[in-house]
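Practice record 12: protein with acetyl coenzyme *A.
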Amino acid sequence: VKFKVVRNNGSRENLILLLGLKNVFVKQLPNMPKPYVTRLVFDRKHESMALLKRTDRGEYIVMGGCCYRPFPSQGFAEIAFLAISHNEQVRGYGTRLMAHTKEHAKEIKLSYLLTCADNNAVPYFKKQGFSKKIQLPRELWQGYIKDYEGVTLMECKLHDKVNYLN
Ligand code: ACO
């Protein structure tokens, strides 16, 4: 497997990967309206950390990913969607995906990851170092993040000195 940052830069390769990602999210997040998922995944302000698996024919297929929108001037990214294909869950890929997402966020000088976690995903996010206590000053995120019913706003502070891939 490999991890790759994918954004809609118009290239055929990336569009195929984003389509695969969109399909995983639509399947694994059935409460999310499909047009909404599609719009954000292909939105040029969003990018995704994709988990790719090499097939016997040497092609890469999407097994999961994390789609987020960086807010560089506010120092955070909001994770919009995160999922692993059903048949690959509970094998540690979700943990590795988050570690790669954190390292990339550090590289682009972000200090926080925020997400509106589905209530049933709260235990997963807690294991990944997220907390319900939001340290990022409210004025930096309010109005930028879509907080709604049935979700829990959670935050993970990123530490420069920590290598999340170790
Ligand atoms: N049931 C019980 N425990 C689980 C489950 C599950 N379905 N999924 C993960 N865990 C636990 C694992 O046991 C593990 O615990 P451990 O570290 O004590 O062993 C821990 O969570 C991490 O497990 P991973 O194998 O690294 O996670 P996985 O690859 O399964 O990915 C994920 C977790 C992404 C939540 C996956 O289950 C998934 O795609 N779920 C459906 C989609 C979803 O709910 N996404 C999040 C919605 S919120 C949002 O998108 C902003």
